[in-house]
Amino acid sequence: MLAISVIIPHLNQPDALDACLSSLEAQSLDRDLFEIVVVDNGSSAPPADVISRHPGVRLLEEKRPGPGPARNTGVAGALGHILAFIDADCRAHPDWLASISSTLASSPPGVVLGGDVRIWRPNANRPRAIEAYESVFGYRSQLYIEKHGYAGTLNLAMHREDFDRVGPFAGIEIAEDMDWGKRACAANVQFRYVAEMVVFHPARASMTELYAKWDRHIAHYRRMAESDPAWRVRWFVRALLVLASPLAGALTVMTSDRIEGLRERRQAIAVMGAVRWHRALTMLSLLRREPRVAWNR
């Protein structure tokens, strides 16, 4: 049996997928020890041409919309006893799989790994404002794992037995990483943050894309909040707290080691303020209407 199956959900991102697959082909781990499974989730044109440029990569299809169902299809078709998940628009550090392999080999059963997610900067000497912002706030993986009990599915690894123990990822209607993490904790599975397990994710190309990301997250949070009979009051208070949070956010930016220099910090603070305002207004609007969720980005 193969050691590791890398599972990648895909929807209409052929160029990003090509870069992702190239990063996996450059892994320090022996290529004979892992397979790559791409699951297309209804792209307007399936990425067969991209797959053909990367020998040994398998392409599957899942028609039910959402990255969760696509990942489940990948698991069902995977041959490895370790499952590693990465998104199509991410690039893996050359030691990503080696870190997963060595860490799980030295961990007891029932341990799930989540790693660091850094922002990919095409021009590191002249980062864009959104890149500066997302470098600080985009993917706070250690916080998610150690405080909130879940790991983002764009950088996640586990033994197949532990996946089977928790069960499949949920559909598009909820945040599948948070839901899976909640069920994992209930099944006495422990999350471990591994700083050396690094993937890179591109920053959003525009404020419109960044707002769309937060709209999706807020819609998920709204659905989760509905189980509380007093959710409207709590939701209103949370919206006001978000509106009042830029001061604390500015302190986070000024003390972050993810960005350098006053220019980058000013940029990050400006974008953070706009995003917090958008989040608060969106949350308040969802007191009166039902949320909509779509993927990807």
UniProtKB/TrEMBL annotation:
GO molecular function: transferase activity
Domain Glycosyltransferase 2-like: 5-142
Superkingdom of source: Bacteria
TM region positions: none
Keywords, comma-separated and alphabetical: Transferase
Keyword Cytoplasm: no
Name by which UniProt lists this protein: Glycosyl transferase
